[in-house]
């Protein structure tokens, strides 16, 4: 969480920093601040609230002259969102300024030690400890002081540090929180994520754990935690800079929903070659695929929901048993990973702390991990043994849409590949599946074109108190995602239930007019879910159904029906999710919610 940007170069630093932070606000947005060296002192301006407050406070950066600075948007962990707890933090003499993303786990003993040595603290943050600790070890050599601190702090951190005595340098440090640096002819940059500096440079260096960078206006030096200089190779970012801008859409979320046909195509087409599925990055021989006894899929939030769909699809197509775990549970439950177990972690950001920890736990237990990841060069992408990228491009809205859709595609591809190699799919079924996959982008487009109808329906529910989503099989998996989309951005309480489970307690919550959204795309389960719809309708629910074209029988149990085009039974989630995303989006818009930045959330959850 939290976003960091730094700049040193020919231009005024503050406007560059504000511009970069505006691309990172999705990472945290309860406060923002900047430190700029004005030729004599390090000036700090910071404030609780959105970045807009800081922009106003500094007149777009004009009141903070200077060509070197660091900035921060915060997602509070230690200490409430307030002016004083905002970053940057100073040492007592105001000669050192620090911005931090991550958590210093041993900050309390360090703080006690510093207090005993006469240091005083003004904030409740763990970050302030870093400013004072660097000060404590600083004897004129910034690199030495920083590496001493790195040896003493535990936890995760990406840091940007200024020293008033070294006004021609910024220091950037990383451990378990993302950080990149980049350079162009006008200066050097640090950032938590690529979109912040994409406008200025496409050549970036991914900082590895326990590395330090010294940035000057015209060059950068990289060091290990033992102060040894190292060389690094830049990576050229291919993303379109416009991809990180709204491009005329009211919100990033809407834009990203509309990008789903492309995302699905981009994730799919490089892996369909000569009427076969070729996943080179899987790094597995056919013998190894045949030897898989069990698959663990581990992820958080929507990525976990994609994993639940993956379970149904892989078990159904490839007949391999799959367990799906929420990463924060997996890592602490001492999982039993036997010989022949494959571990798949799924993550859009590639930085989710629990998912990363689950990956490491699996590797420690001697298992190779396949990462299904969106952000190129992210921690999970680097640490996984093999990486299957979802080519969704930058996703800015906090609520995921296109990356989730791409994750589904990656899982379908694995299921079909495994099914074919293991002899569970005959040629006809295999080719039919490929054809159905290829049709998905056009079908998603058709569903998106129907947005006005869903908007009208959504407008009726902006005052809803509770909404329930029900389904069976993969329809249950998509209900979970539909429910999360609605609640996280509209703040309407919502739950997803396996349709057959509702009457074991939850049905008592159904009142006259309660909206129940039933997803009914599995032909074999159609009558079963229909009965569950009738049960809730009899108790006063208003029933919305999402079902396949042609299933008009549903109209006897539903008050409102959204039809989706026909596809293979295993791929229906890719279509059913579109109206559910649109529904959540338009309810939130109707309520006037901040759709792209819902309260209390952050895009990249780098704390456990
Ligand atoms: C919900 C959402 C989150 C993420 C979750 C995992 O819309 O975006 O639930 O899916 O925080 O994030 P990643 O995929 O980055 O590991």
Overall description:
The chain has 3 domains: 3-238, 4-Layer Sandwich (Glutamine Phosphoribosylpyrophosphate, subunit 1, domain 1); 248-449, Glucose-6-phosphate isomerase like protein, domain 1 (Rossmann fold, 3-Layer(aba) Sandwich), CATH 3.40.50; 450-595, Glucose-6-phosphate isomerase like protein, domain 1 (Rossmann fold). 35% of the residues lie in helices and 24% in strands. The protein contains 18 helices and 27 strands. An 8-stranded antiparallel beta sheet has the order 3-2-4-1-10-9-11-15, with helices on one face. Strands 5-6-7-8-12-13-14 form a 7-stranded antiparallel beta sheet, with helices on one face. It has a 5-stranded parallel beta sheet with strand order 19-18-20-21-22, sandwiched between helices. It is globular and about 75 Å long. It binds fructose -6-phosphate (F6R). Residues 300-303, 347-349, 352, 355, 399-400, 484, 488, 605 line the site of fructose -6-phosphate. The site of fructose -6-phosphate has 14 residues, from helix 9 and helix 16.
């Amino acid at each position: 969480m939290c976003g960091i940007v730094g700049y040193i170069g020919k231009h005024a630093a503050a406007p560059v920093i504000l511009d970069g932070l505006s691309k990172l606000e999705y990472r945290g947005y309860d406060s923002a601040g900047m430190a700029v060296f004005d030729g004599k002192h390090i000036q700090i301006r910071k404030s609780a609230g959105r970045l807009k407050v800081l922009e106003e406070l500094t007149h777009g950066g004009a009141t903070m002259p200077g060509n070197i600075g660091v900035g921060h948007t915060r997602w509070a962990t230690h200490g409430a969102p307030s002016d004083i707890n905002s970053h940057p933090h100073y040492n007592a003499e105001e000669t050192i300024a620090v911005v931090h993303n991550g958590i210093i786990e041993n900050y309390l003993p360090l703080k006690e030690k510093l207090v005993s040595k006469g240091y005083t603290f003004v904030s409740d943050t763990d970050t302030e400890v870093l400013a004072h600790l660097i000060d404590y070890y600083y004897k004129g050599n910034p690199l030495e002081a920083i590496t001493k601190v790195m040896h003493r702090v535990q936890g995760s951190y990406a840091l940007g540090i200024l020293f008033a005595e070294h006004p021609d340098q910024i220091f950037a440090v990383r451990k378990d929180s993302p950080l990149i640096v980049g350079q162009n002819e006008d200066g050097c940059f640090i950032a938590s994520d690529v979109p912040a500096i994409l406008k200025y440079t496409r050549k970036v260096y991914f900082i590895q754990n326990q590395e330090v960078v010294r940035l000057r206006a015209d060059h950068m030096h990289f060091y290990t935690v033992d102060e040894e200089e190292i060389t690094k190779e830049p990576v050229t970012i291919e993303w379109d800079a416009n991809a990180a801008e709204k491009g005329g859409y009211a919100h990033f979320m809407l834009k990203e929903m509309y990008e789903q046909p492309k995302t699905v195509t981009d994730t799919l087409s490089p892996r369909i070659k000569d009427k076969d599925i070729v996943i080179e990055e899987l790094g597995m021989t056919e013998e190894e695929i045949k030897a898989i006894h069990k698959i663990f899929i581990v992820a958080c939030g929507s990525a976990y929901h994609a994993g639940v769909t993956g379970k149904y699809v892989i078990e159904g197509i490839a007949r391999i048993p799959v367990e799906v775990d929420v990463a924060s549970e997996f890592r602490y439950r001492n999982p039993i990973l036997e010989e022949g177990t494959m571990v798949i972690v799924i993550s859009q950001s590639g930085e989710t702390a629990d998912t990363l920890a689950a990956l490491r736990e699996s590797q420690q237990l001697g298992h190779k991990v396949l990462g299904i990841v969106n952000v190129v060069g992210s921690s999970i992408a680097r640490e996984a043994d093999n990486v299957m990228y979802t080519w969704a491009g930058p996703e800015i809205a906090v609520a995921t849409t296109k990356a989730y859709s791409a994750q589904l595609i990656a899982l379908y591809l694995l299921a079909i590949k495994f099914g074919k190699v293991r002899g569970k799919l005959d040629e006809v079924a295999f080719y039919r599946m490929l054809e159905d996959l290829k049709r998905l982008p056009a079908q998603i487009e058709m569903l998106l074109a129907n947005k006005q109808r869903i908007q009208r329906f959504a407008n009726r529910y902006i005052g809803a108190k509770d909404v329930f989503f029900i389904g069976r099989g993969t329809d249950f998996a998509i209900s979970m995602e539909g429910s999360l989309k609605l609640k996280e951005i509209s703040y309407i309480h919502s739950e997803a239930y396996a349709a057959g489970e509702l009457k074991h307690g939850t049905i008592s919550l159904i009142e006259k007019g309660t909206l129940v959204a039933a997803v009914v795309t599995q032909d074999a389960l159609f009558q079963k879910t229909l009965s569950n719809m009738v049960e809730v309708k009899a108790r006063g629910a208003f029933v919305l159904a999402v079902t396949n074209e042609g299933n008009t029988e549903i109209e006897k149990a539903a008050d409102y029906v959204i039809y989706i085009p026909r596809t293979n039974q295993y791929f229906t989630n890719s279509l059913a999710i579109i109206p559910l995303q649109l529904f959540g989006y338009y309810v939130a818009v109707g309520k006037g919610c901040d759709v792209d930045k819902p309260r209390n959330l952050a895009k990249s959850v780098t704390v456990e």
